Amino acid sequence: MQHFPTLQTIDINCIDLSEEWNLHPFLSPAPSSRLQKSIQSIGLLHPLILQKRTDNRYQLLCGRLRLQALQTGNPANNTVTALILEDQIPAKRLLYYILEDQLLSGTLSPMEKAYFFTYCLKHMDLGEAAETFLPILDEKVQLHLISRMLLLPELEPEIQNSIHFGKIGEKVALELQQLTAGDRLALYRIFQELELGGGKQKRLLALTKDLAFGQGKTIAALLTEPDSSTILDHPEMNRPQKATALLTALQKKLFPESSAAEEGFQKAVHKMQLPPACTVSHSQAFERNEVYVTLCFKTLTEVENRLLEIKTLAKEKE
């Protein structure tokens, strides 16, 4: 017979904290001011989930920050209403409760998924974990998805924190995981300092990896060289300007001939003093000699009025 949890009021002092099921070990142990104010003003809407022990004590499964907010906001109140799971509940069913409780707060972050499957694999094999829980997470049942997630808890806590809050994407995080700790943290500090978005993070990562490999040095050493440190320490440039300047400098280092060609092309176009409605571009990577001129017209009627001139010019270029 299946037993469902019961809602009971218990003594807070009978609750034992444990890291055994914590999906957020990388987060600050203190509850946010928003959570504290919410519980102080309207009470606990989302009950804790506890597992009963044989000695009349309870292990906290879900709601660590809620419990701490309760204790901080009203230390005189020693009781809390919680969902109590039986002591002998199978681990697989217990994991269901943990996952569903977390999903009530929204989609799980990559870090939450990673820690959840870490706990799953202590009680079942990879195939069972994938078939049981990936569909609940709206993921395809593919074993490599879990294997990839399990790499994330190997990262430093500050990087895990950034992944959890969406400041670093999962793909970038997995690339960082393949680097040494020194290189990884050097890049992470620049991500933070310059507030780089996903696209610029990927570009910085790709450029520094290729440069470091080509020059036989670490990424950390590369980023402390004068041409990089001068940009990062520049007193007048703002963060976006520093990011652009740093990426440009690294691009020139990695592709000096291409960068020189691009710089010469842009100087030549600038000397033409073309009107704003006219732009000139080259073929990708200067693979061909052709250049492309683009004219911007405000309306289709304006194009029609200049059609004869356009056709004449195009015919001359055939």
Tell me what the structure shows.
The protein is α/β, with parallel strands linked by helices and 318 residues long. The protein is built from 16 helices and seven strands. The protein has helices spanning 33-42, 64-73, 91-103, 110-120, 126-133, 143-149, 157-164, 170-177, 181-194, 198-215, 219-222, 226-232, 239-254, 256-271, 300-305, 307-316, and strands at 6-11, 15-16, 48-52, 58-62, 79-85, 278-282, 291-295. The protein has a five-stranded mixed β-sheet. A hairpin with an 8-residue loop joins strand 6 and strand 7 (291-295). Helix 1 (33-42) packs across helix 2 (64-73) and helix 13 crosses helix 14 (256-271).
Descriptive terms for the model:
318 residues, alpha/beta, Conserved hypothetical protein from pyrococcus furiosus pfu- 392566-001, ParB domain, five-stranded mixed beta sheet, two-stranded antiparallel ribbon, 16 helices, elongated
How would you briefly describe this protein structure?
52% of the residues lie in helices and 11% in strands.
Write the SSE topology.
Elements: E1 6-11, E2 15-16, H1 33-42, E3 48-52, E4 58-62, H2 64-73, E5 79-85, H3 91-103, H4 110-120, H5 126-133, H6 143-149, H7 157-164, H8 170-177, H9 181-194, H10 198-215, H11 219-222, H12 226-232, H13 239-254, H14 256-271, E6 278-282, E7 291-295, H15 300-305, H16 307-316
Helix pairs in contact: 1-2, 10-13, 12-13, 13-14
